[in-house]
Amino acid sequence: MGLGNYVRNIRETLGTIFEGMAITASHFVRKPYTIQYPDRMEIRVQDALPFRYRGLLDVDLEICTGCLACERACPIDCIVIDAEKDKTTKEMILKRFDIDLAKCMFCGLCSEPCPTGSIHHTPEFEGADFSLESLVRRYVKAPLVAYKPPKGPETDPDVAPILARGLRYLDEFASPGDPKARE
Amino acid sequence: MQQFADSLLADGFLAGLPTPVGYVLVVAFFAFVLLNFIMLIAGVTSWLERRVWARIQSRVGPNRVGPQGVVQWLADGIKNILKEDIIPEAADKPLFKGAPYLAMIGFFGAWVCVPFGDGLIIADLNVGVLYITAVTGLVVVGILMAGWSSNNKWALLGGIRSAAQIVSYEIPAAIAINTVILLTGTLSMQGIIQAQGWAPWNWFLFDNPFTFVAFFLFFVALLAEGNRTPFDLPEAESELVAGAFTEYSGLRSLLFFLVEWGNLYIIGALCTTLFLGGWQVPAFTENAFLLGVAQVLTFFLKSYFLVFVTMWIRATLPRVRVDQLMSLCWKYLVPISFVNLLGAMLWVVAFPHGSIVMRVAMFLFGLAIVLYFFSRVASHLRRARPEMTWNPIS
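Output (structure tokens, whole complex):
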């Protein structure tokens, strides 16, 4: 090892350390990338997720027709529906609509055959709980009459926006990314 | 401090007590105050270090316990105290139990000679610097003892590395100290500070080119002695689990970490005393109390800036290999420090009272390096075009 090599080693050591310190010093004024989920966020994560995000399932009972299509589509039987036809009034009566979210695998197969978009995924994903039992969502509190689509457009002002949302959900399933399907 | 104790015994708080009892009480009081100060310094340093690393790595760091996480260290300490104290079955039990306390004694002993301000020092020994160099050597005995008694390969390797490291790096550190001793003629900490002035060109750092080099030699050697990155081979977690501290848990492991983080302040205080003008401030006021506060603050800020630099280095440089560590010491630091000492001797012979021209020139040289450094930082920022924030706690 000659003297030139020796001096070059010293120079390179000092130079590289100097440059490295400059790079790390420049990081003191850079904004950290950390996202402090969940309590120190500028917006909720759920609001930033797309409309069709496959989060926890939800049911709009106002527009559920009681057709049992979702129950049949579910590959792991996490949906249980009791619906029977009233002999006298010819109406479908929903007695039970349970979804076991602990079993659900978020495949989305139930929301595809739904004729009204009643059963759908929400962007909500924070489902952690202390017992499996509390993850069973029981939507029907008391027996109720299922939705029957009228001939022509929906007239009930309470139901119309829910139905519009459900149909938009279905449309976006059918043609994802189609600008005409949105709105 | 003996004068202080004598005055208390004569006509003060402790009047009427037998002299030995009074001395013991005064010493115990100051030891208690100092121990609490060390805990606070080491704790806050551990928190700040994590925040500084975090910012350098584009993270946020611990910011939940207390405002911006300032009492994170307290939570960690309480957690560690409540943890189970495990002693391995095959360990050499007396040595295993005693090792953290030995390291703690060596570290705590050094604080006797750490100045805080004019006259604010536990004991201004006339061999001050030598005493600190000697007594911090006890820390390595503790670490070596911990490594040996754990009966664990990793721990033993870590302990032996620590011993090898400190034995090697004492040499450049001691010779770098000698460069300053040549100028002052005293080893006393306060004496060294009094030989400097408040102005940067009156600091020993800029006294002549040789002390300038000696400062960097000394700082690197102290980093190695304090087992700090890039020389943290004794606890190299990627190769040795936790090195000498592998088998330690609970309070005993806490003591080792206390020593490590508290040592940072000692590194800073030593460098400040020897090279950065210590507590010297311009005599801006007649009020002795205000002047004292300014001195304490000056000394603390200078020392803590160097602590910050060690954190910054830790976040920048990778750990060296053992052979690199040894070649750095024996092939570079030791020869350079000897040549440097020779140069300093010649300088003292040539200019017994120093040269103000050289001082100002060295100061301007140092200023130029700092300015060039900031221009490099700005250039990196321009090239990366990052999203910037000037808020230190965001």
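Chain A has a mean pLDDT of 84.
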